[in-house]
Amino acid sequence: MDTIKITYDNLGNTLDIWFTKPTNDIICDDLENEMIVKRDKSGNILGIEVLNYVKNKQTNVESLPVELSLIHR
Description:
By secondary structure, the chain is mainly beta.
């Protein structure tokens, strides 16, 4: 079973979504729409970072961080 971890950084105003445990060697690729893809040396996607996540007061981040377990079938 895999776990996805979702966290919000209030200071940086970023939302991080990790599909696996982060490693020390992360390669970041900037995408359009203020998003960054985080990969390992082999090119596997480890996570995604959303920049400027809270653009207005209607976004609810009080319930973060969250960990979700995935069940493979």
